[in-house]
Amino acid sequence: MTTVATTLDQATATGRRAGLATPRLDAEILLRSVLAIDRTTLFDRLPDTLDPAALLAFDRLFSERLAGTSVAYLVGQREFMGLPFVVRHGVLVPRPETEGLVEWAEQWLASRPKATVVDVGTGSGAIALSLASRANANWEGRIIGADLSGAALAVAEENRRQLGQEQRVGLVRGDLLRWCGGPVDLIVANLPYLRPEQVAGNRELAAEPALALIGGEDGLGAIRRLVADAPRLLAVDGAVGLEIDPSQAAAVVNLVGGAWPGANIVVRPDLAGDARHVVVTLGM
Predict the structure, then answer these.
(1) Residue 109 is inside which H or E element, if any?
(2) pLDDT at 213
(3) Peptide bond into 183 cis (omega under 30)
(4) Yes or no: is domain 78-281 CATH 3.40.50.150?
């Protein structure tokens, strides 16, 4: 009979040979999902024999993981900013590097209790809903999450309901900012910024929607369009935060510098030290 420990060890070895970045963690999360237990209970049960039905269910999930499907899709959830977000096929999986953009926006909003915020390309709603959930109880602003994808907005609506943020967060289906009449105090966006060759053959990205990943031939198509349109909406003392590929930092700085001459522009690193966010602040 196979124990929980043996199952995890075998899956970890298989995942390592297949080139998974975090084979042990992936195996633990998937087995916890099958058994409906937390991490502490999983460790307590390491010597236990695994039920054949549970083993079969785990093997099926882990096979899908080996084929490139994200753990988040397989269990239907990903933690972001300490909050549980539902994720499904058709929506981008929230990633840790985006948390830095939320932290910057949170700091910017702390002294602006009535700000209007637009999260462009909201996807699962991770940025918009994290900002709403972490705002001070007395914060009276409004956050709008916008996305072109109806599938993504359906997931965002599910997360909005689950996190109880119907009052603070609105959801709009629209192309970038074309639907918006302004004025807007803060624009945040994690738009598609990868080039086609960065996605092609990448099994970690194969199951995620191309619409949320690929930003045209140079990766900057959506960012370029957003920056061109945003000046008509942004308040005179407003701010913009964009997530980028590290290779795009200089190009994006040039884009936003042309849109807002004289603005304060900062390139912020992610936890790995790579250029990940370009933030623009106007006024003081």
Answers:
(1) helix 99-109
(2) 85
(3) yes
(4) yes
